[in-house]
Amino acid sequence: MTNELLTLATDAARAAATLLRDQRPSTLQIATKSTATDVVTDMDHAAERLLVQQLRAARPDDGFLGEEGADEQGTSGLTWVLDPIDGTVNYLYGIPGYAVSIGLRDGSGMVIGVVCNPVSGELWSAQRGQGAFLDGHPIRVNEPTDLAMALLATGFGYDAARRARQADVLRSVLPRVRDIRRFGAASLDLCAVACGRVDAYYERGLKPWDLAAGGLIAEEAGARVDGLAGRPAGEDLVIAAPQALFGPLAELLAANRAAED
Ligand code: IPD
Ligand code: CA
Q1: How far, in Å, are 27, 38, 70, 120, 251 from residue 23 at the CA level?
Q2: Domains of the chain with CATH codes
Q3: What would the mean pLDDT of 81-103 be, rounded to a whole number?
Q4: Helix (H, G, I), strand (E, B), or coil: what is residue 147?
């Protein structure tokens, strides 16, 4: 059953990825959301419409939660969690680091995750308990032991006060690690942990659609994905790291109050 759902999610992600890549108008219609720098384009809406249409046609009883407004309860116990464009600012500027992110969750957590980068064509996927894959090949996190040698990814929210705090945290983290990357799409950051392109990732302020698919993919690739002080990963804070790095990174982030504004 989950194999069929994975195929469905993969097909939908690829269809939305093709739309975003091939139908991008030279001038995007832009509206702002939470702040002046938090933007949504007409293509975010078009891609979410396509995802919902395609998934609903096959799964009429499932629920939907999408960044651009999809919000339906459903009756099957399964909910699709959608980010039609993760990395909208990259999309706006023509930076090739954005993704279509599709997660499917049940009462116990995430069941399926698919993240597709339309420009590279890469597609990461995972099913609960069955490992993680990049373009069909199994992937694993790196096994670094020393935080000082670790390459970290992170991201920043759209609110100025929160960004000021995130800069404070970063100031303390940066001298303690190999280096930092800020790529601009949380789902791709989580997939980067999963396939060893970075060692670990942390960010405050992620929404469910930023975390859903990439979180499962990172976990299935061997990462621990959690928050601080025994809390699950969520809007407060997401830390995704190989087991051996999680403790030292969490300690550093806690000491710098990374889960507080
Ligand atoms: C954003 C990106 C970004 C992260 C922000 C997210 P969006 O998602 O994932 O990397 O730092 O927290 O909101 O707005 O491009 O879908
Ligand atoms: Ca988005």
Answers
A1: 11, 22, 22, 16, 45
A2: 2-138 (3.30.540.10), 147-255 (3.40.190.80)
A3: 97
A4: helix
Give the pLDDT mean for 188-199: 98
Considering every ligand atom, which ligand is closest to the CA of 207? 1
| Residue appearing with tokens 């303390």 | 172
| Backbone phi, psi, residue 114, to 5° | -135, 130
CA distance 213 to 125: 8
**Is pLDDT above 80 for 1?**
no
Nearest CA to ligand 1 atom 2: 185
Average pLDDT over residues 37-46: 89
Contact between 152 and 201 under an 8 Å Cβ cutoff? The reply is: yes
The residue with tokens 């078009």 is: 46
Which ligand 1 atom sits nearest the alpha carbon of residue 85?
16
User: How many Å apart are CA 180 and CA 178, to the nearest integer?
Assistant: 7
Averaged pLDDT, 123-144? 97
More confidently predicted of 137 and 25: 137
For the chain, the distance separating the N- and C-terminal CA atoms, rounded to the nearest angstrom, is 42
